[in-house]
Amino acid sequence: MDRALDKDRLVLVTGGGGFIGGHLVADLLAKGHSRVRAVDIKPYDEWYQVHPAADNRILDLRELAACEESAEDAARIYNLAADMGGMGFIENNKALCMISVLINTHMLMAAKAAGTERFFYASSACVYAADKQTDAHVTALKEEDAYPAMPEDGYGWEKLFSERMCRHFREDFGLTTRVARFHNVYGPHGTWDGGREKAPAAICRKIIQAKLSGRHEIEIWGDGEQSRSFMYIDDCLYGVERIMASEIEEPINLGSDQLVTINELVDIVEGIAGISLKRNYKLDAPQGVRGRNSDNTMIQTRLGWAPGITLEEGLAKTYAWIYDEMTAGGARSAAG
Ligand code: NAD
Predict the structure, then answer these.
(1) Which residue(s) pair with 308 in the sheet?
(2) Residues involved in catalysis
(3) pLDDT confidence bin for 334, thresholds 50/70/90
(4) pLDDT tens, 153-178?
């Protein structure tokens, strides 16, 4: 049975200045939660969303004391803080990704000490064994495919280790932990520039740049035939809430199963932009695994639901937001 939470109990969102965290804080406030704390390491002007109704704090959650301060009085914790980015970031910053192990470990210790009732950990599809992802025509990944373990170097190992920390805190200390393996989340109010952006936002940006500049070309990482699925942020938020409130103790996939190649993703965004571009393939760029999709049997069985917002619908909203940022943002910086 799903567990609801009194709306006046404190909820902590770590990584609250990040993409998913910013949306989650907004969602919790919109649902009537009166005490939401958002914590992030970044200065406020770098948060994607700052919600004045939340208790916003800037802290480095690699430190135990910062985790203890954050967790104080928190009935629920959503641990989303991590040093991460798209393929270009995680393939070149493995040590930084691994250091996020301090965040989850210290957050779990702080949650236990604070008597927190439920703890959510944002894991990733990068925990899955690389040898199960060598073909673009993939067999979708089931939860048990994470073992025998051979995850994405750096980032994926950290996520897998942290999943296990959650399990042992639950088994040994009675802390209720819930773990979702996110598969590529996208939407407005996320990174679209600067090196940490992921494929949907990067492709929207490149197509908008081509449209605005009149240079009708696009650079695509790899041969464009690598495949993925992408989940729109609204599905992610709904899934997080359902999983957090559920009795599902083991890590569970939270992702779309609409598989596309990167070339097909470009087709969709070109359609939204009403433009067709010459494609230049950068074969030595970071690409990650060849193919990856989410098997949603478990989430369908356990929750009677799975992410269903189509790429066409989600990308239209994302494209519109990035377009606005690029054009209004340019005007803003020119003015300021
Ligand atoms: P994000 O980078 O936008 O948000 C993460 C936030 O954590 C950032 O704002 C960052 O400043 C903060 N952070 C990093 N180190 C910190 C520290 N030491 N102390 C406090 N805050 C710190 O990423 P996101 O897309 O919102 O992802 C949220 C979570 O979901 C992450 O754990 C990520 O690994 C996981 N995830 C995301 C995706 C995706 O496609 N977006 C996929 C799989 C898993």
Answers:
(1) none
(2) 155
(3) very low
(4) 999 999 999 999 999 999 999 999 99
Q: Is 122 in the pocket of ligand 1 (CB under 6 A)?
A: yes
* Dist. CA 84 → ligand 1 center (Å): 6
220-241: burial string, b at 16+ Cβ within 10 Å, e else:
bbbebebbbbbbbbbbbbbbbb
Q: Are the beta carbons of 124 and 156 closer than 8 angstroms? A: yes
10-186+231-254, what's its fold?
Rossmann fold (3.40.50)
Of 84, 90, 107, 192, best ligand 1 pocket probe by most atoms within 8 Å of the beta carbon: 84
Ligand 1 atom nearest 155 alpha carbon = 34
Which atom of ligand 1 lies nearest, measured to the CA of 61? 19
Query: How many angstroms is it from 321 CA to the middle of ligand 1?
Result: 20
**Per-residue pLDDT at 331:** 45
Domain 199-228+259-303+310-329 adopts which CATH fold? UDP-galactose 4-epimerase; domain 1 (3.90.25)
Q: Decide whether any atom of ligand 1 lies within 6 Å of the 3 Cβ.
A: no
For residue 122, the model assigns a pLDDT of 98
Residue 137's alpha-carbon distances to 167, 182, 302, in angstroms, are 32, 20, 27
Predicted confidence band of residue 329 (pLDDT cuts 50, 70, 90)? low
Are 179 and 166 contacting, i.e. CB atoms less than 8 angstroms apart? yes
The predicted pLDDT at position 45 comes to 95
Q: In this prediction, what percent of the chain has a pLDDT beyond 90?
A: 83
Cα of 85 from ligand 1 centre, angstroms: 8
* Atom number of ligand 1 nearest to Cα 191: 3
Three-state DSSP class for residue 69: helix
DSSP-derived secondary structure letter, 4: P
Average pLDDT over residues 248-277: 96
pLDDT confidence bin for 333, thresholds 50/70/90: very low
Domain range summary for the chain, segments of one domain joined by +: 10-186+231-254, 199-228+259-303+310-329
